[in-house]
Write a structure and sequence with these properties.
By secondary structure, the chain is α+β, with helices and mostly antiparallel strands. The chain has one domain. The chain has one helix and eight strands. It has a five-stranded antiparallel beta sheet, with helices on one face. It has a three-stranded antiparallel beta sheet with strand order 6-7-8, with helices on one face. A hairpin with a 3-residue loop joins β1 and β2. The longest helix is centred in the first third of the chain and has 55 residues. The radius of gyration is 28 Å and the shape is rod-shaped. The termini are far apart.
């Protein structure tokens, strides 16, 4: 039997164990690459929604002369027209009387409050399908100065 070549059972088990370890490390690395990328994309989506809302709110709020808050925000412009922001389902919509647009999707909560000439928006965006990727923001904008002193 000295002329036979091959592997012993111990050698075969060692090779299988090492191959299994390498495969498990590679598998977990690939899984992490996809999971982290998906989480990052969801987080960026949530942040983008909040940035879009803050841009629209800043634009309209600085033009408005008065505001009322609550479950929706109604901004009254100097020409007596109004712009309304309201949460419908998971979309934050802006209605200026002539057109209605969605300024953000994936919104789970939005609260508008008005104190004097300051409008505050507390909002949370949570993209669908990804737990823990939500983003919360509080935005404040001062309304257009009135003719008198506030």
């Amino acid at each position: 039997m000295k002329g036979q070549q091959g592997f012993t059972l111990v050698e075969l088990l060692v090779v299988i164990s090492i191959t299994g370890l390498i495969a498990s490390f590679l598998g977990s690395t690939v899984y992490q690459m996809f999971t982290v990328a998906e989480y990052g994309n969801s987080k960026i989506t949530a942040i983008h929604d909040l940035q879009n809302i803050s841009s629209w709110l800043n634009r309209d709020g600085q033009i408005a002369s008065t505001a009322t808050g609550g479950s929706q925000l109604v901004l009254t412009m100097p020409d007596a027209s109004t712009v309304t922001y309201k949460l419908i389902g998971t979309e934050l919509q802006r209605d200026d009387g002539s057109s209605q647009i969605t300024v953000a999707w994936n919104i789970t909560s939005a609260t508008f409050s008005v104190s004097g000439r300051m409008v505050t928006l507390d909002i949370t965006s949570a993209p669908v399908g990804r737990q823990g990727a939500s983003q919360q923001g509080t935005y404040q904008v001062y309304l257009r100065p009135s003719g008198g002193v506030d």
